[in-house]
Amino acid sequence: MRARQILYFGLISLFLNFVVSFLATIIVPYLGFFSFPDLLDSFRLPDFVKRFAGFDGLHYLNIALSGYERNEVAFFPLYPILIRSLASVSGLIFPLVALSIAWVSLIASLLILPRYLSLTGLSKNAKWFIIFLLTFPTSFFLQSAYSESLFIVLVLLCLFTNKGGNFWASALFAYLAGATRVVGIFLVIPLLFSGARRRLSLLLAPMLGFISYAGYLWFTTGDGLKFFHVQSQFGAGRTTKVILLPQVLYRYLRIFLTADLTYTYFISVVEFSIFIFVLSILLFDLYKIIKKKAAGNLPDRLGLNLFGLTMLVFPTVTGTLLSIPRFVLPILTLYLVLSEINNLYFKIVIAGFFAILHVILLMFFIQGYFVA
User: Fold this and answer.
1) Is 70 exceeded by the pLDDT of residue 197?
2) Residue 237: which pLDDT band, with cuts at 50, 70 and 90?
């Protein structure tokens, strides 16, 4: 795909999400179950725009505005640091800066993707890769005031510059990814499989990003792992005890058999279904890699696969699949495998189903219903 086509794809996706958001404010009853509703109301932006900063987005904005408070240490610092810094330089209001970072990161990710896929030989079908990414049921988080887009572009820049031989740049992006999301530390996996074994500084970079934040927490709170220890304060069944995946899946099956048919039940089904769907794709791809039936560069592909499996399973140790529909967004293997489907009509059906669920979840999200 040419850069201009990719840019059109990205801009059209942003525009359509805003259209759906606007319609949601008319069609879906407003619940407004946001973290800081007064803070959201204070932003001088149209509702269908500023509500892309709802839920966790408001935590990021509150951190950027006032620093860490209460349980907000659960959110890693790079995104709020960027919000505060760019707002100070530009003079723009914080939510607009936060959203702009997400939009720019998303477009940058789309532009880098085809070059990375081509350089590694992983895929020649970047168009469908991007279509599945943009239509994925929760991909609207990529244009929301969340760190997902920033994390994805940092991961791609890290892997792309490493593959291109610019190891210092790769180490910088790995460090920044480790300071954006806790799963950034697992970037060491694809780096190992892409030939970075002899470059210790590059392999340590993701961990150093994590250690920087852990060190800050240790100096300010006396607990370097407080970002994990506060998880139970968010409720929704999260715990600071390590829960094994079979226990988590069993819990969800019990919910499906005993709980009432409510909105929470619907979201639980979405969480469970997306987890099983993504896990199945990753295991199928891993099987093909082991049998050497997968396309493209097998070491790079194996690294991405194991990175994806780690990002998928790691959040479940808190005892819930809460937010999994959002956490799977950076799993590149997901879109890679779907783009390799040979049957065009099957791909259209999958993308169409994704798009329908995407619209439904986005409408609920905009009107203050928890989605992921």
Assistant:
1) no
2) low
Inform me whether the pLDDT recorded for 235 exceeds 60: no
b/e map 256-275, b = 16+ CB within 10 Å: eeeeeeeeeeebbebbbebb
Q: 123: closest CA among 343, 350, 340? A: 340
Interval 119-161: pLDDT, tens:
988 877 899 999 999 999 999 999 999 999 999 999 999 999 9
pTM: 0.95
What is the spatial distance between Cα 129 and Cα 132, in angstroms, rounded to a whole number? 5
CA 191, distance to chain mean position in Å, is 19
Please state which of the ranges 145-154, 227-236, 288-297 shows the lowest mean pLDDT.
Answer: 227-236
Closest CA to 213 of 26, 74, 367: 74
Among positive and negative, which fits the CA dihedral 150, 155, 161, 164?
Answer: negative
Neighbours of 159 (CB within 10 A): 27
What pLDDT score does 69 carry?
86
- Token pair of 2, please? 């040419």
Structure tokens, 195: 């030939």
Contact (CB, 8 A) for 40 and 50: yes
What values do phi and psi take at 11, rounded to 5?
A: -70, -40
The Cα 279–Cα 267 span in angstroms is 18
Nearest of 199, 224, 194, 261 to residue 73 by alpha carbon: 224
Q: Determine if residue 235 is left, alpha or beta; phi over 0 gives left, psi from -120 to 50 gives alpha, anything else beta.
A: left
Residues near 86 by Cβ (< 8 Å), separated by ≥ 6?
92, 97, 100, 101
Query: 3-class SS at 295?
Result: coil
> Beta-carbon neighbour count of residue 73 at 10 Å?
22
Paired tokens of 1:
């795909």
Q: Are 206 and 186 in contact (CB under 8 A)?
A: yes
